[in-house]
Amino acid sequence: MAMMWAGRFSKEVDSKVNAFNSSISFDARMYRHDIQGSIAHATMLGEQGIISMSDSLEIIDGLKEILADIDSGRLEIDTNAEDIHMFVEAELTKRLGDVGKRLHTARSRNDQVALDIRLYLRDEIKEIISLVTELTEALCDIASEHTETIMPGYTHLQRAQPITFGQHLMAYAQMLLRDIDRLHDTARRMNVSPLGSGALAGTTYNINRARTAELLGMEEPMVNSLDGVSDRDFCIELASALSICMMHLSRFSEEIIMWCSWEFKFIELDDAFSTGSSIMPQKKNPDVTELIRGKTARVIGDNMTLLAMMKGLPLAYNKDMQEDKEAIFDAVDNIKLCLTTFIPMLKTMTVLEDNMRHAAAKGFINATDCADYLVKKGLPFRTAYKITGGLVAMCIAKNTTLENLPLEDYKSQCETFDEDIYKAISLDTCVRERRSYGGPAPESVTAQIEYTRRKLEALNNG
């Protein structure tokens, strides 16, 4: 295929350079968005009288036919084309002749590709938001079944205080709400049109950039044509938002990996989302979550690629910026792959409530409640803290727990203790009494679930 820019050159470009320069292998996925942008451009050219209305309508019909033919498989994208823009334009010219050649009036591939990638990522963000929303809804559903399922809460991976499984899940729900908010924000800033910026300096034609922005459902045209063709902040911002979301999935995956181990055994994954070992018949491996951890590193790497690619580029467009697509496409593809696997895995897991409660009964995680018992009886907290520390040391020496320690031992440390200490330090009391906003009490977790569902609706319908 002859290059559209070949007129300036007296010698054919080396085939290795053509292959090196080509982007069709990865930008072909934007064919719908390229045609969408071209239809808007052709519409505006006709309305402005830059080309005849009959040529405008013929171009639009031709573009729609090309789109239908690619969608149906009647037309295959030529992998020898330099990029998707050149392929579509060459196909249009082949079908319409000189009329097809008029499409590129008052436009450059620089503003064309800047538009295409915005349109493409705008659609991808909607799909990612839908997936993150589905995951958040699944967390709400599971949490609502476990508002009273007691488990140990951890700090430093040491048993710390009793919480509920429902509360633990809702912590991840809050992370995902922030992810959805960030994605909406990114989409809002992305939704401005670079079309009409030309190669960098706009055009002498009487174009209507506000009209093409309107036709494409974009908020407004970009204010500066240099910025219009050279801005890739939206790619970096999206990659950053996806990196944060993947980090959340990775943290959750790490906990699932631990919870599946025999050392914890808090949950069991469905066989459909586990793998075995080639030599160890007893193994049931949480490979899905391990892959998510690995793919998180990959998405973070895509974010770093985009930042490093842009950090030294002078205005305006530079060919380096062709590297934006493979990085951001990889990030988008991988988070979608992770979410579509993670969601059904979570929905089908089995929660082993008895094991969670058994773990919560160990480790003196009700020690704070023992100290609080004394504080409520009038002792200063630091005094109560020291007395409770002595009781824990006594339990360790006697190989017992606070629940089973005789009352006389309690009284040996402080006469304030009475029979009601056993109720105060029971796991059910410890959790039930933590009614403070955001805490693990059943009614508090229920409120968190209701808040999350309201927030989801507001974010996605606002």
Low-confidence regions: none
From the structure provided, what is the oligomeric state, counting identical versus distinct chains?
A: single chain
Main β sheet profile:
2 strands, antiparallel
Q: Based on helices, strands and strand pairing, what is the structural class?
A: mainly alpha
Describe the structure.
This protein is mainly alpha-helical. It has three domains: 22-107, Fumarase C, Chain B, domain 1, CATH 1.10.275; 118-148 and 163-172 and 218-359, Up-down Bundle (Fumarase C, Chain A, domain 2), CATH 1.20.200.10; 361-461, Orthogonal Bundle (Ribonucleotide Reductase Protein R1, domain 1), CATH 1.10.40.30. The chain is 63% helix and 4% strand. Strands 1-2 form a two-stranded antiparallel sheet. Strands 3-4 form a two-stranded antiparallel sheet. The protein is elongated and about 100 Å long. The two termini are 48 Å apart.
Provide the fold topology.
Blueprint: H1 15-21, H2 24-27, H3 31-47, H4 53-72, H5 84-96, H6 98-101, H7 109-144, E1 150-155, E2 158-164, H8 165-190, H9 209-215, H10 225-230, H11 233-260, E3 267-268, H12 287-310, H13 323-347, E4 350-351, H14 353-360, H15 367-376, H16 381-398, H17 407-413, H18 421-424, H19 427-432, H20 442-461
Antiparallel strand pairs: 1-2, 3-4
